[in-house]
Each structure stands twice: as C-alpha cells, then as structure tokens.
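Supplementary notes for students who missed Thursday's class. We covered one full example, reproduced here. Read the sequence, then the structure, then the short commentary at the end.
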Amino acid sequence: MNLVFRAACVYLFLLVVMRFAGRRTISNSSTFDLVLLLVISEAVSDALFAEPDHSLTSAAIVVITMVGLDIAFSVFKVRSASFSRLLDGVPLVLVAGGKPLPERMRMARVSAEDLATAARESGFAGIEELQYVVLETNGKLSVIPKSGERKNADVPLTSSQ
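Structure (token representation):
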C-alpha cells in the first residue's frame, strides 16, 4: 500500500509542476525540455522505490497506479468543467484587434516572433491582420482574422507554436 501512496503523491506533484511549467506540446518541446523530462523521470523513480525492492511487481504497481490516476483525472475532467479548468487552464487571448497584449504574452512565455510565425503559417502577413490570436489549452496558437475570411484556405487556422 505504501507503494501506491508514493506513486499517487509523485503523480500529483508532477501534475502540479507540469501545469505551472507551461503549455507546450511535445512537438514544441526543445532538447532542453526532453532532457529535463528524462532527469525528472530518473529522480522520480528513486522517490517511488525508496525501499531496496526494485522488483518487476513493484514497477507494475507504480505504473498501474499512475495510469489509473491519469484515467481517473481524464474522466473527472470530462464530467467537471471546473476540474478541467484547474488541470488544463483556459484559452488565453494574446492578440486582440491586431494588437499584441504584452503582459499576457510574458505570462504565457510567447514571443512576438511566435505570434508572427502563427500569422504567416495561417496565410497572413502579420498579426495586424488578425482580430485575435489565442493560446489554446493544448499549447497551439489559433488565429482569427479581422475580416472573418481566410487569405489562404489551404493553411489551417492553428499553429504548432
């Protein structure tokens, strides 16, 4: 039972840390992010298995506990909008009326170049042509043009930034 409790505590701790770390998707992760994830996983494995027992059974219990918590949280997120907002956050408007919102950009750690890239990837010359740029909860930038019409119908209105 101690192993299940330790796994649950580590899962919740990592969930909180990753929630505050930001909204990057795996495709947007840098080499540093990957190395950090590997180091965290190694450090966490030591915390999970404090006893000298590093058996296959112990590893299976930890994995089952963490996957079970992940499934449970997914179910709770579907059933409760407030729980979903707590875990995933809410979309954040970074550009309104073609004007960047610097305080929100700083808070989200999104640069002006990230916004310009999202505009170009969506077929626009710059953010001044956009009504809104929204940082979605999945880490992607959605662009909404001022005119309501897309300049390039072959380009999606979301960016991987």
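Commentary. Residues 2-88 form one domain. The mean pLDDT is 79. If anything here is unclear, bring it to office hours.
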